[in-house]
Amino acid sequence: MWQKFKEQIPAVILTALLVIGGAFWLHQQTVSEMSKKQTAEIAPLRDSNDALKAASEENRKQIEATNDLFRAAQFAGADWASVERGVRGDKRIGAYTQPGNPNDHLLRDVRTIERFLHAQNGGRGEYGRVSFTVA
Q1: Who's near 114: CB < 8 A, 6+ residues apart?
Q2: Helix 104-120 to helix 2-76 angle, to the nearest 10 degrees?
Q3: Residue 106 and residue 7: Cα distance in Å, rounded?
């Protein structure tokens, strides 16, 4: 019996190697297919995420510009409700006062107000307790 087993050892080893090699190849194919499938499923989500990041950045800029305008109105002693109505009534920027819409006009107007206040304050950047930057 031991003699017969010795004769079959090369066949047993070859069979084991073929089974292990086949299992490894099948595993690699499965992993590759799953990776391709996941990449295809994730691509639209990445695109959506990139769009949300861009919208978020625009919202941040919009909020920053509105806060700057509010501080300038506060410094000038203006009624914020009146300023807001005036901004919304401006045809250039009125349609873009909602979050998510790009609004370079509002940012430019805020910078113009900052320059005006800067000049009115003798070139100093402080206006009461409100600090502005001049771009």
Answers
A1: 68, 72, 132, 133, 134, 135
A2: 50
A3: 89
Question: Quick check: helix, strand or coil at residue 73?
Answer: helix
Over residues 23-32, the pLDDT tens digits come to: 999 999 999 9
* Residues 115/134, Cβ–Cβ less than 8 Å: yes
**Is-above-0.85 flag for pTM?**
no
Burial class (CB in 10 A: 0-12, 13-18, 19+), 71: buried
Average pLDDT over residues 117-123: 66
**Are 130 and 71 in contact, with CB atoms under 8 Å apart?**
yes
| Alpha-carbon 109 to chain mean position | 26
